[in-house]
Amino acid sequence: MNLEEYNVRLKILLEQNVISAKAHDLAFLAFKELLGELNREDIEQAEMLFTHLPMALERSTEGKVVEGPSPEIMKEIFQSEQFPIAKAQVEFIETNWGKPIPEEEKNYLYMHYTTVLNLNH
Asked: Which residues of the chain have pLDDT under 70?
């Protein structure tokens, strides 16, 4: 998926009032940030991560809580050599969001980022 394709996906979510303009803008910025980290113009298999991201931001705003990934999965994610990059990407998102993202949502983001990083690094 490239920046143009992602922009089309985000606009659909925004136009259907599924996400806010703030979630749209930050998700777009986060995609650009990852493109820069990977030094690529296209990210393979990033659709799940970048669909989850703006929805996670919306859920956090609405106070909705999700059950996070299992501890076994998270143990594997935390041990991944890609985890430090994934963590930095999620910290970038949280900093730009301006408020804490629930741990369960962050764990899903870590999981998705680690997967995408493993496929694209």
From this structure: none
